[in-house]
Structure formats: structure tokens, C-alpha cells
Specification:
9% of the residues lie in helices and 41% in strands. By secondary structure, it is mainly β. The N and C termini lie far apart (75 Å).
């Protein structure tokens, strides 16, 4: 009888264990979703070719440096296939990893006239999840904003999903904008076709209004499409600009506004009594930025502060807003530690109430 019932008993025990494991696994996953964490993704920093069309790819790590314990593996794919990066000789603390076809378990080719490179991070702590992916289409590949990659150019990752041509051939850190911009210049006209001579505006970067009535601004090098530009109070629709921009080149391009503006044009315009707004300038910035606060007169002497958060939702600093309504953030956390490059969110708090939120980019 013992031998007859033992298998069923064991199956019952194993079933209980399986259920317990399943419950724990689900609880763990739910915990991760309820309390999101930043997974250490490997990202594409730079792509370039040498004179013989051999490619090299610079990779950065969102955890600031490579740690063997974090990554199960990292793979590269192109239209010709997928291969794993050999990480055996990569040491802990590596901040930028340069990969070539020789760095892979099996060779991969990249079509210089047009291809898509994808990077897959398989993270040890979530090995069974879908890998974290970063991708770069370029050339004549569908969805590319980089038309071609001539000799002497590379493609660099600026921030978020924005890539740019770059004249820098040395390996650079991500978010380095040196050598990436062309120049737009011309006139800005309002909805009634009158020239605009003052005010704050920006496309990729702030627009400088010159004494002769012209403007100039630096624009990142890619196939750019602009339908909006930022004003001092709100975004403004513009007649669509489609420009293929190369580094160091100058493009004459007038800008025509489709929306009526008042506060964006006047130099010393005062906010209406119902307006609340925050913006920072410059943005992106390094190492500091000015946060400009606009509130109605009824809030002028209220207690105001700016709370700054990282992408994990952690508050890293809190700044008191003076009556002048401008406060400077020096790019440091409340502990005095310099904040890393990336996106930061900030909130205007008035008498304990959240009034407005915005984002800014620290580039080093």
C-alpha cells in the first residue's frame, strides 16, 4: 500500500511546491511593476565605418559602466543576422565598449548604404523576460532619419530616440553634441506675415534673434521635420520645415508661424492673471540651467519650490523659488553629487500643491 500511494503523495507535494513557486514568481513580477526599477540597458552610442567599409559600434551602459553580474549577454543584429558579443575579456567598470565584427561570436556585415542595427541586453535578474532593445536605422533603411554616412562622418546617439550625423571620428561619449549641428538662419514671420524681432523661441536649440532682424540656431544633423517650435509661454505651430541637415552647413530658411502669439513676442510681457508655467533655459544644458517660473499675481508671494526628479521617480533636489521667479539648478543632487547625463523632471509646488511639471536634459 505504501508503494502504491507514495507516487500520488509525491505528486501532491510537487504540485504544492509548483504552486508556491508560481505564486512567489507572480508576486515578484507584480512587485517589480508596482515598484518599477531601472534595468541596466546597453545602448548604441556611435556607429562609424573606416575606409574599407569595416564597421565599429560604440556601446554605453545606462548603469554608467559594465558590470559582469548584471548582464547575461548582449547581442547585435543587422539585416544579415544576429550574433552575441564576446564579453569574456570585458572588465568591470568599462564605460564605453567598442565592438567590431571581430568582437562577435560569429561575423556580421552592415550594409553601409542602409541597414538597421539592434542591440539586445539580456539582463541576469530578468533572464526570462523579453530582452531590452535599442535600434538604429540609417541610410535607405525604412524609418531612418540619417540619409547616408559619407567617409569622415559617424552617427552618434544624442538622447532619447534622436541620432545625428557627427564629424567626430574619435570614440565619444553618448550625448556629446560637438560636431553634430548645422545652422539654420533667416527670418521669422508671425501669422500675419509681419517679421518678429524679439522673444524667446527654440527648435532643437534656442533661436538667437539678431539686431538685423534675422535669426540663427543650431540644428542636429539628420532629416528633420519641424511642425512646432517652443515659445516662452507655449508651443507654436509653424509652416512645416523639412530639411536634410549636415554638420557644419548653413541653411537659409524662413520660419512662418501659424498661431497667433502675444506673450512670446513681447520682450517684457507679463503673464495673464490665470497663467502658471515653468520652463528652463538653456535646455539641454551643462552644467547649469535657469528655471523660470510664471504665476498669477495672486501667487506671487506664496511659498514656491521646484522639486527635481530622476527617471526612477526619486526626488534628487528641491529648490526654493525667490520672488524674482528665476532659480538656477547647478546640475547637482541635494547631497552635492553631480547628476549624471540624462532626462530630469521638475515640478512647481505652490503652498504644497503641484501646479506644473516639465522636463529637461542634462548633457555632459
Amino acid at each position: 500500500m505504501k508503494s502504491h500511494f507514495t507516487p500520488n503523495k509525491c505528486r501532491g507535494i510537487n504540485m504544492k511546491k509548483a504552486i508556491v513557486c508560481l505564486v512567489l514568481a507572480l508576486a515578484s513580477i507584480n512587485g517589480l511593476y508596482a515598484n518599477p526599477i531601472a534595468l541596466p540597458q546597453a545602448g548604441i552610442s556611435q556607429l562609424k565605418f573606416d575606409g574599407n567599409n569595416r564597421w565599429s559600434l560604440a556601446i554605453y551602459f545606462e548603469s554608467s559602466s559594465y558590470q559582469k553580474s548584471l548582464y547575461d549577454s548582449i547581442c547585435v543584429s543587422t539585416s544579415s543576422g544576429l550574433s552575441k558579443i564576446r564579453l569574456d575579456n570585458v572588465s568591470n567598470g568599462t564605460s564605453i565598449l567598442v565592438v567590431t565584427s571581430d568582437s562577435l561570436a560569429s561575423p556580421l556585415s552592415v550594409n553601409r548604404t542602409g541597414d538597421i542595427i539592434k542591440l539586445y541586453s539580456y539582463i541576469t535578474m530578468v533572464r526570462d523576460w523579453h530582452p531590452l532593445e535599442d535600434s538604429l536605422p540609417f541610410g535607405n533603411y525604412p524609418g531612418s532619419t540619417i540619409d547616408s554616412l559619407p567617409t569622415g562622418y559617424s552617427i552618434i546617439h544624442l538622447f532619447l530616440f534622436l541620432y545625428s550625423k557627427d564629424t567626430t571620428q574619435a570614440i565619444v561619449s553618448p550625448f556629446d553634441t560637438a560636431g553634430t549641428c548645422g545652422i539654420l538662419r533667416g527670418h521669422i514671420y508671425d501669422k500675419n506675415n509681419n517679421p518678429i524681432l524679439n522673444g524667446y523661441f527654440r527648435l532643437d536649440n534656442p533661436i538667437i534673434l539678431n539686431n538685423d532682424g534675422t535669426y540663427s540656431t543650431n540644428v542636429y544633423s539628420r532629416k528633420a521635420i519641424f511642425n512646432w517650435m517652443n515659445g516662452s509661454q507655449a508651443s507654436i505651430r509653424i509652416d512645416t520645415l523639412e530639411i536634410n541637415i549636415n554638420p557644419g552647413c548653413v541653411y537659409n530658411q524662413d520660419i512662418h508661424l501659424l498661431d497667433s502669439i502675444v506673450t512670446s513676442v513681447a520682450k517684457n510681457s507679463q503673464p495673464s492673471d490665470h497663467s502658471v508655467n515653468i520652463m528652463n533655459y538653456p535646455n539641454p544644458f551643462n552644467p547649469s540651467t535657469n528655471i523660470i517660473v510664471t504665476v498669477p499675481s495672486s501667487m506671487k508671494y506664496s511659498r514656491k519650490q521646484i522639486d527635481i526628479y530622476n527617471t526612477l521617480g526619486q526626488k534628487i533636489n528641491s529648490l526654493q523659488v525667490p520672488n524674482q521667479m528665476v532659480v538656477q539648478w547647478n546640475g547637482k543632487e541635494s547631497t552635492g553629487k553631480s547628476a549624471a547625463s540624462g532626462i530630469y523632471y521638475y515640478r512647481l509646488i505652490v503652498d504644497g500643491k503641484i501646479m506644473k511639471s516639465a522636463s529637461m536634459i542634462l548633457l555632459k
